[in-house]
Design goal:
With 172 residues, the chain is mainly beta. It folds into two domains: 49 residues, no CATH class; 121 residues. The chain contains no helices and 14 strands. The strands form four sheets. Strands 3-7-6-4-5 form a five-stranded antiparallel beta sheet, with no helix packed on it. The radius of gyration is 20 Å and the shape is elongated. The N and C termini lie far apart (50 Å).
Length: 172
């Protein structure tokens, strides 16, 4: 909950809430407040300062923590669930759920995906199916894995955080 402060509005003293997200120029002169996570929202930062993200439409519904793949659709960059079973290499992940056709903010690998669950601290994780992860790497000697993507994603920092690494992938 944003802190309130006393302000003079049209000659009357009034309690006004600080803003936790900026809409741009229309919020000029307003007092900002940190969000529930104790940090300023990226919308307060100058252009070029903030998370290195890609915003693009989602081709399908995405859940928080899903790893995603970029693809071209009619000349438009879009994202969809990464999947080791169908050649969709993980290029990043989303922190928030996204509806199909809505804009998704995709965070790159080489950062921390803190929107996961049931991870084992210190364990390695690979790309799974439907945007998920697996603690079991695909075996290159199993003929059922021919054509699948083997992609190490990172190491679990906690039960919900995966420190990712962009070391590439191999098509088995």
């Amino acid at each position: 909950m944003a802190q309130k402060f006393m302000a003079l509005v049209n000659g009357v003293r009034k309690m006004v809430s600080a803003i936790t997200v900026s809409a741009g120029a229309s919020d000029a002169g307003k007092i900002p407040a940190v969000g529930d996570d104790g940090r300023f929202d990226e919308s307060f930062m100058p252009l070029g300062i903030g998370a290195d993200t890609v915003v693009c439409p989602a081709s399908e519904a995405l859940s928080a923590g899903n790893f995603v793949n970029f693809h071209q659709d009619g000349g438009v960059l879009k994202c969809r669930l990464a999947d080791n079973s169908n050649g969709r290499v993980a290029r990043g992940f989303v922190k928030e759920p996204v509806s199909s056709s809505a804009d998704a903010t995709v965070y790159p690998l080489d950062s921390t995906n803190a929107s996961l669950s049931s991870l084992t601290v210190g364990a390695d994780y690979w790309l799974g199916t439907a945007g998920g992860v697996t603690a079991t790497p695909l075996s290159e000697s199993d003929p059922l894995n021919d054509g699948k993507v083997s992609q190490w994603l990172g190491i679990a920092k906690s039960e919900t955080e995966l420190v990712t690494d962009d070391q590439g992938h191999v098509i088995l």
